[in-house]
Amino acid sequence: MRLFAISDLHLSSTFNRAALAELESYPEDWIVLAGDIGETAEQLEFALGHLVKRFDTVIWLPGNHDLWTIDPKQHPLRGESKYRRLVDICRDHGVLTPEDPYPLWPGEVGEGVPAPGRIVVAPMFLLYDYSFRASHISEAAAVSWAAESGVFCSDEELLDPAPHSSRQAWCHQRLALTESRLAAVAGNDVNLVLLNHFPLRADLIELADLSRFSIWCGSTVTEDWHKKYRALVVVHGHLHQRGTHYRDGVRFEEVSLGYKPQWNRQLGIGAYFRQILPVPGQL
After folding, report:
1. Distance CA 29, CA 27 (A)
2. Mean pLDDT of the 201-228 span
3. Three-state DSSP state, 65
4. What is the pLDDT of residue 276?
5. Where residue 233 sits, what CATH number does that domain have?
6. What are phi and psi for residue 43, nearest 5 degrees?
7. Residue 208 domain-assigned?
8. pLDDT value of residue 75
9. pTM (2 decimals)?
């Protein structure tokens, strides 16, 4: 029994959709869909229609693309209403979301890994608040600062935060809600697997010439959550930079698939699943 994770399937791409339809079955395993599955409810339905047949348990959490409102005439839902609709779709398919009770991991932890007690798998929806920026830049100037380097995120046009006053306000509401839920399950006999679309730490963002894109990548509020909530593993996507990193002895996995040039379809999507648990023998 394994816990896998993948994000950024971007099923607006016919290339990616066709590959997902070819996926083999993993009947004993769990899969985490860590955001950016697509831009429409129909694309999420497509993904879940395939994946719930192939996995024992499916866990979904949103990315920024999932929350976009691209065609308001055909798809008028936006902001919180769009998110709630996606949650309802997941529940119709028996898929777990950030709005459901956190499940306990019933499988093994990994050979040679000290028994940490109970393992709680915590899917989160946190957004970003522009705080991953240079210290001399104000929040109000963050988008202009990014634009100076030629960087712009389509969220500014397509991710409506309604009914919240801004994406930052929505982020802060989600941070407070999630902290209360994590605190309620945390304890000396509990380790968490933290799942979020956006990275929890700014020092995980290595975007070179796109470095100022960091303002759309998370919040400094979560920088110490891996320690505060005794994380065994932290999972995120968003950056399209698959990899394993360690901070304070905690493993961080970036699990994105990405667009056509960023992966090899001949290998199949399954080759890009990141095994979260049991802890792989070689990392």
Report:
1. 6
2. 94
3. helix
4. 97
5. 3.60.21.10
6. -70, -35
7. yes
8. 79
9. 0.95
**Mean pLDDT of all residues in 68-91:** 93
CA 40 to chain centre: 17
The answer to whether residue 101 sits within a structural domain is: yes
Query: Where do the H-state alpha helices sit in the chain?
Result: 14-21, 41-51, 79-92, 142-148, 155-158, 167-185, 225-228
Domain span including residue 252:
3-277
Signed CA dihedral, 58, 61, 63, 66: sign only: positive
Q: Are strands 274-277 and 250-254 parallel, antiparallel or unpaired?
A: unpaired
Q: What is the pLDDT of residue 112?
A: 60
Cα end-to-end span (Å), the chain:
19
Q: Which pair of structure tokens corresponds to residue 119? A: 């393992």
Q: Which residue blocks in 77-154 are alpha helix, DSSP H? A: 79-92, 142-148
Say if residue 146's pLDDT is above 70.
yes
Residue 22: pLDDT above 50?
yes
pLDDT at residue 207, as a whole number = 84
* pLDDT band, residue 187 (cuts 50/70/90): confident
CB 274 within 8 A of CB 5: yes
Closest CA to 201 of 235, 169, 240: 235
- Residue 283 located in a structural domain: no
Q: Is residue 196 part of a domain?
A: yes
Closest listed residue to residue 205, CA positions, set 151, 259, 283: 151
C-alpha to C-alpha distance for 237 and 253, rounded to whole angstroms: 8
Domains in the chain: how many in total? Answer: 1
Token couple for 83: 């998110």
pLDDT digits (tens, 9 = 90+) for 41-52: 999 999 999 999
CA distance 104 to 228: 19
